[in-house]
Amino acid sequence: MIDGIKDFERIGDFEELINCLEGILYLDEVKLKKYLDGYDIKALYQKTGYLLDNFKYNMQLTDEFIRYCQDRIGKSTRYLLKNSADENRYVSRWQLVVPEGLPT
């Protein structure tokens, strides 16, 4: 999952990633943290936290995991999609610019 979020622009497209996320019913938080910490990339914590926060109930993720990601995002604003033709908006909680129409 973490590799898919990190490299979704190389292995598919954003819509495909969202479709995959919608089909997941459980994720192991311990393993997610292990892989995130292995990369130790602030932008990856931002993207993962933002995306999984929107699916946390389906995936049985806790608020503690979401806070774990949020505590590691740093201070920089980043873009969820590098080359989005859509209108974008800023999600302050994640310091992330996302395409219009995605959840806050």
Topology:
Elements: H1 2-6, H2 8-11, H3 14-22, H4 29-39, H5 42-53, H6 56-59, H7 63-70, E1 78-79, E2 88-91, E3 96-99
Parallel strand pairs: 1-3
Antiparallel strand pairs: 2-3
Helix pairs in contact: 5-7
Descriptive terms for the model:
104 residues, 51% helix, 3 strands, three-stranded mixed sheet, mainly alpha, globular
Question: What do the pLDDT scores average to?
Answer: 93
- Count of alpha/pi helices: 7
Q: Could you tell me the radius of gyration in angstroms?
A: 13 Å
Silhouette: globular
Task: Tell me the total number of β-strands.
Answer: 3
Helix-strand category: mainly alpha
Low-confidence stretches: none
Q: How are strands sequenced across the largest beta sheet?
A: 1-3-2
Estimate the strand proportion: 5-15%
- Compute the number of structural domains: 1
**For the report, how would you describe the main beta sheet?**
3 strands, mixed
Assign a percent range to the helix content.
Answer: 40-55%
| SSE order | HHHHHHHEEE
Describe, in plain words, how this protein is organized in 3D.
- By secondary structure, this protein is mainly α.
- It has one domain (2-75).
- Helices cover 51% and strands 10% of the residues.
- The chain contains 7 helices and 3 strands.
- It has a 3-stranded mixed β-sheet with strand order 1-3-2, with helices on one face.
- A hairpin with a 4-residue loop joins strand 2 (88-91) and strand 3 (96-99).
- Helix 5 (42-53) packs antiparallel against helix 7 (63-70).
- 18% of the residues are buried.
- The mean pLDDT is 93.
